Amino acid sequence: MGLKILWYSNAPWTPTGYGMQTAQAWWRLNKLGHEVVAIAANYGHEGTPINIDVHGEKTQVWPRGLAQSGNDILGAHATVSKADIVITLYDVWMFDPKVTVGFKWVPWLPVDHDPCPPPIKRALATAYQPIAFSRFGERMLKDAGLDPVYVPHGIETSIFKPGDKREARDKFGWCDYEYVAVMVAANKGLPPRKAFGEVFAAWAEFVKEHPKALLYIHSLATEEMRGMNLIEGAARAGVPEDNIRFADPYQLIMTYPQPIIAALYQAADVLLSPSYGEGFGVPIVEAQACGCPVIVNDCTSMPELCFGGWLTDNQKFYTPQGSYQFIPRIGSILECLHKSYSANSSALGRKAVNGAKNYDADLVAEKYWKPVLDNIERQIKHTEKKPELVTF
Q1: What is the dihedral of CA 28, 13, 191, 309, to 10 degrees?
Q2: 356 vs 210: CA distance, rounded Å
Q3: Burial of 339 (0-12, 13-18, 19+ CB in 10 A)
Q4: Most buried pick, 44, 181, 355, 361, via CB within 10 A?
């Protein structure tokens, strides 16, 4: 029969990480024999329900409530949908246990601190089955006494694949540069979790030796998303204007098509992504699927996703979540940039592509989502007990 699933996250047409995962996952769950009866959007849709049809699979997208967390509307959505389970793809500490206790809650969640922050553990007290989307997150939840299963994020390898570097650089007008680094990272929150300040400081030193190098930042460069002013930050770090470019802010709002993002990775010599912490890090896998090596921080989920590239050293710091994240050392970022500049990019690119193939969205659906959901269905339909732990 399959499960009836209410999916709660960003609307599937939004260009956010959660929106893109929603877009590629919901209809694949239908193909597995389940039914996503609705996608309850907490971002990207207001007004009335909208019918959508993807690859012959149909569902509705329901509008957001008044609270960003959805605590004002999620319980009613669960009741109206008559769903067997509610899968949420969102930060779990935002949810009110008085709401989530009212249905079988299956949170697909990030953990980007070490150890698991207390607010996450408290929120998951009402979870029917937590699902971690990194092995790191799975380990942190187990260490906290919880019983998660693992389903990673996926990527569309039909889009994110190797291409001709010169042709890609020509598309962006970058052919005059001998070395190109890109960052694909949301500029949200202070201090900036994506390590923009540390990257700018390292880049300012790097271009003193390599004046024909370009850093492209695919992010909103100003503070509208409660982030930092990246243009001012780069200038204060001493990055010359000729060595840095930023995404077009209008096009960011209107959304860059995924093939354009793939072309960015194809044009690049390296992806810079030494974040303070990542629940997963989709651009890290997308870039490597395109043959682009990566520089990531040696913490949280990032080491498990580094198939071809380098890890930076770091210093931990305590956050308001009651746990630790990790600031990459500027000198280590610079060392990694020099290693990247001198590396055999073809060999690293092949390793990167081979590793990224394991996160193809079709493979993720069949290898991970299918056994997890089938197990939940068996438990609900036959025993009404909490699902057994699935291991891979």
Answers
A1: 50
A2: 30
A3: middle
A4: 181
4-154+360-383 and 165-357: same fold?
A: yes
Q: Is 291 exposed, middle or buried (0-12, 13-18, 19+ CB in 10 A)?
A: buried
Residue-wise pLDDT tens digits, 236-295: 999 999 999 999 999 998 999 999 999 999 999 999 999 999 999 999 999 999 999 999
The domain limits of the chain are: 4-154+360-383, 165-357
3-state secondary structure the chain: CCCEEEEEEECCCCCCHHHHHHHHHHHHHHHCCCEEEEEEEEECCCCCCEEEEECCEEEEEECCCCCCCCCCCHHHHHHHHCCCEEEECCCHHHCCHHHHCCCCEEEEECCCCECCCHHHHHHHHHCCCCEECCHHHHHHHHHCCCCCEECCCCECCCCCCCCCHHHHHHHHCCCCCCEEEEEECCCCCCCCCCCHHHHHHHHHHHHHHCCCEEEEEECCCCHHHCCCCHHHHHHHHCCCHHHEEECCHHHHHHCCCHHHHHHHHHHCCEEEECCCCCCCCHHHHHHHHCCCCEEEECCCCHHHHCCCEEEECEEEEECCCCCEEEEECHHHHHHHHHHHHHCCHHHHHHHHHHHHHHHEHHHHHHHHHHHHHHHHHHHHHHHCCCCCCCCC
Two tokens, residue 282: 């989709």
Lookup result for tokens 């001493």: 238
Per CATH, the number for 165-357 is 3.40.50.2000
CB 88 within 8 A of CB 99: no
Give the confidence band of 345 by pLDDT, cuts at 50, 70, 90: confident
CA pair distance 23, 343, nearest whole angstrom:
36
Burial 358-369 (b: 16+ CB within 10 A, else e): ebbbeebbeebb
The single residue listed with the structure tokens 């979540």 is: 321
Beta bridge partners of 309: 294
Q: What tokens appear for 77 in the block?
A: 């959505």
pLDDT attached to residue 12:
97
